[in-house]
Design brief:
By secondary structure, the protein is mostly helical. The protein has two helices and no strands. About 0% of the residues are buried.
């Protein structure tokens, strides 16, 4: 009987370890995403005044005052460049 008890205890311990590994994996993904968002926020806070100066120099008026994402920060620039070049996929 002792051998079966040890076997069941081992099985339970392995199952617990597997559950913990799955939980840890999901937490690592969440932590990585949070770190990336924080880094993007710091980058935008640092670069926004410089990009706004570039927009002033280029005469871009469709900018967002307080951008929160990279798309919001560089969107007006990409829109302006698309208008200058023409819509993608068109041939001259």
């Amino acid at each position: 009987m002792k051998d079966r008890t040890l076997t069941y205890l081992s099985l339970a311990l392995n199952l617990a370890a597997l559950c913990y590994a799955g939980w840890l994996h999901s937490q690592a993904q969440t932590m990585a995403e949070a770190a990336l968002k924080q880094r993007e926020k710091r980058f935008i806070e640092t670069m926004a005044p410089r990009v706004q100066q570039v927009y002033d120099g280029m005469g871009i008026t469709n900018r967002i005052d307080h951008p929160k994402t990279l798309d919001e920060l560089f969107g007006p620039y990409l829109d302006t460049m698309s208008r200058i070049v023409g819509s993608p996929g068109t041939t001259r």
